Amino acid sequence: MILSVDNVTYKYKNAKAPVLEDVSAVFSKGDISAVTGPNGSGKTTLAKVIMGILKPQEGRVTISSGDGVTDISSLSLAETGRKIGYVMQDPARQMFSTTVREEMEYGLRNMGLDEKETEARKKRFLSYFDMEGYEETFPFSLSQGEKQRLVLAAVLAMEPEWLILDEPTASLDVRRKRMLGEYLLKIKNDLGSGIIIISHDASFVRRYAQAEIKMTGDGHV
Amino acid sequence: MYRLSGLDPRTKIIMVIAISTGAMTVANILYLSGLFAATVVILAAGGVSLGRQLYQVRGILGMIGFLFVLQWIFGGMDGLVLAAMLSVRLLIIVMSALILLTGEPRDYLLGMTQWKMPYEIAFMVMTGLHFFPILKEEALDIYYSIQLRGTEMKKTSLKKKLKTYLKISLPILAGAMERAKDTSVAMEARCFRLMPQRTYMRRLRLKARDICVMIIVPAAVTVFILGGCGKIGYQAIEKPDQIMLSWTGDPAGTQTVSWHGDSRYDGIVECNGKDFDASVKQVLNDGYYRYSAEITGLKAGKTYKYRVGDGRTWSSYHSFTTEKSGNFEFMYMGDIQYELMDRDYKKWGRMADLAYEKNPDTAFILLGGDMVENNAALDEYGTVIKYGQPMFSSVSVMPTPGNHETSIAPYTYEKIFSLPLNGPDSVKEEVYSFDYGDCHIVSLNSNLFLPERINDMGTEKWKAMMEKVNEWLEKDLSESDAKWKVVFMHQPPYPVEEDCDVYGLIRENWVPVFEKEGVDLVFCGHQHVYMRTKNIDGITYIMARSGEKYSRYYKSGDTVPDYVKVLKETNSYEMIYVKKKSLEVRAFDASGKQIDSWEKQ
Amino acid sequence: MHIIEGKNLTFSYEDKPERHVIRNMSFGVEEGSITVLLGLSGCGKSTLCQIICGIIPGCIGGELEGELYFRGEDITDMKVNERALKTGYVMQDPDRQMIATTVEDELAFGPENLCMDPAEIREKADSIMKMLNITHLAGRTPGQLSGGEKQVVAIGAILALDPEVIVMDEPMSHLDSLGRELVCSAVKELKKAGKTVIIVEQDYEIVDFADKWMIMEEGVIKKEGTPAAMISGGPCFDTFCR
What we know:
The structure holds three protein chains of three kinds. Chain A is of the alpha/beta class. Chain A is built from seven helices and nine strands. In chain A, the strands form two sheets. A five-stranded parallel sheet of chain A has the order 6-7-8-3-9, sandwiched between helices. By secondary structure, chain C is an alpha/beta fold. In chain C, strand 4 (about 60-70) and strand 5 (about 75) form a beta hairpin.
């Protein structure tokens, strides 16, 4: 079960040089992997390429699972979202509903799950992240940490095989960082998802990641 | 060479406003193309390459092409010109925007603030510009997120797509509001609006070249606009048409020409090596202008070439002949009135052509009234004059008004025709007379007897006027020592059918004068038949029509007054031969076949 | 004497009046010192910053009780834009505090609002850029700056108003190590210039040159003291151990 990035080169439209140049990496499902590097080294770009949001000029991203190898570019964003969960740096960009409950149910409904299954998963993941009781809350009134947990819950409820988190520790205090680390370990063990963390937080990475991919400033690994 | 990027932003704003105003106000494709070329040059000379200019307009080229196709389909050739104008206008405006792109937004805002725009507006705009790309990025991220949450956007119905857009508007708005709040806090924390005014670290200063450009460009555009709208410079006019000759003075030494033009110029007749100025009248309020000029200083019996125009645009050459001595002939045509306008006028035109062909030496033409159906229909007058060519522009046309030229008085008729002003004071041009050779001709307005005229003036005033008219008639006829005296009017003194009082009034008022003063021949029309009376107290009355409208006054089989000598239902034209010893009239039908003749010694 | 002093401050947000984010808190900050406000999220440190700068109650609604003194003067009711001359405020998100389109315009923004003479403004902007080592960034637009550079510019923009106290709310949380270095050196320059700095941060290690730490918990100051004193003792501090 691996997610493979093969010789990806990506250049923004009006840029002089490519942000990612001939980047290759392999992520194993059993690990928490980290992509590190200074700001501007292309970490977020890599995440977007993996998700299929950005299409690389060269190279490809593939997922291999039980039923063979899938090229990400052959999937629509909706299909990719079911395989890889993506938590952006700013959780406010991933909330579209007026209640927490709706937010949880939205993705599940899109998957076509029935009422019972939807209800079950919603409850499970809300409690997973200690968010029971928040069901009727207006998501935008949550604190930063709570928003992040909501998005994590909503994304994971779709039970993707992979999870990418972009700078998840940015606005968290020491305690919450630790909690996040614990959550991630829990997810790895309970759900078996492969986790990729994009972060410049060296100590967090040191503590929780098993594999590391360092991006240099000029688009290489 | 100057560079656009080196100019003050305010200068550039002025340039763009000037050029855009020029583009929008001028409606002449040549001028617009010139402005477009000028804009390209300004940009290129100022450092914006042609390639860059092309790139700027690439977006609207498709739209322009579409416009052209649409206009061509629906508007024909005229439509293409319109499309061309719209396209060039669009191109000019889009390209002039390039002038603005050579500067930074903050410079424009600073410039406007220095020109007293409230600084709050400048900051609003700047914040907007600043955050627009960030908001765009946020919106995109939100859009991707909702898709990653399982919302298919490809191959979904429009309704579903709209629902999704609605859903993402929530986080977009929330994000925008957050940002706005933070920005306003930041601004307050920097003492924004602490004081009623603020100073600026950077100041834009207008340099000499800015002042130059700010003066030159608007000035040039003003000249351009004036030229393009025809206020200055030569604006090509439409060729003058509907040319018609007449006399307002002596047929031996003068010739009056009138024509239709478009009013934007001073009209001239060029003849005999000289230019004669025309006066112009607007007929009705219709944009139909009639010019008329009198050519003087001519020699009798000579043929002259002439043309009309404004000095740069001319009609083609026509010719006329001044009064010849000796025997001559002239033409009379009665009612030209139609049943169906274009068809019947055309037919009449063919008869007129035939008549002119057979009688190329016709000295002048008398028209007996009812040339049109509707007294104020300019297109009808125009059509008559059109089908009367080439005769009307070579031979003087002297008409009399019919009831169809009359609306109480023949207002429009008087503006179309230029006639001698020697009639009685109150009815000048409705009544006149002229001499040609040994013939004195009087044109009377028998519509003066219509009840509308009487009621409009009130019986008292009308009676007073008629007295003056009759007085004038008597004086005019008695003072003439011409051998032959001919009178023409529209309604007949001796009709085929006595269906109203007018005829009786004519007989009452005028016939005695005719008889007293030795009138030989009276032409009339109105009842749409060819009718010649017997000699009634020394005068013969001839009624005719030249047009296609059949008579409703007489149908074959009707009884006819006993003064009728000859009666034919056909239309006709009459040639009158004036000789020293005789006055002869011959009537011809539309094929040129003679249908009647009469002679007086 | 304490340059900033708070007495019995109590505050609750408009929409949650029952919950007191700040509870009867009194504190003092010494002139020329660098104070770091530590605490877990939700303890009220951001709120305290905003109270010091007047953002609360000026821009954010709620029930504020107690007094705030600046050099002995009661500034509790002073408006934000007046207060800015005494207490400057640097926000967490570098993108949200840049107002002008270039760095030098950003530094000029504050003085322009004060109707200063243009030549003076230019001088001031130049001197600040020199002090913070950002002269090479003068003409750059926000898109051409890194996160750390933007925060330094924000500090510079505040400095241009000459406040004596500068309050920073988690200025380094969105920055990478390079950015943090930049901001730290800027803060050191501030201290050299004699400014009083109050920084809210998650990571005490970042501001290792602080003079005083104040640990907040649930709206009150749980503990304060010099770093040395704090490190050596107290279970309270252990929550911050990595």
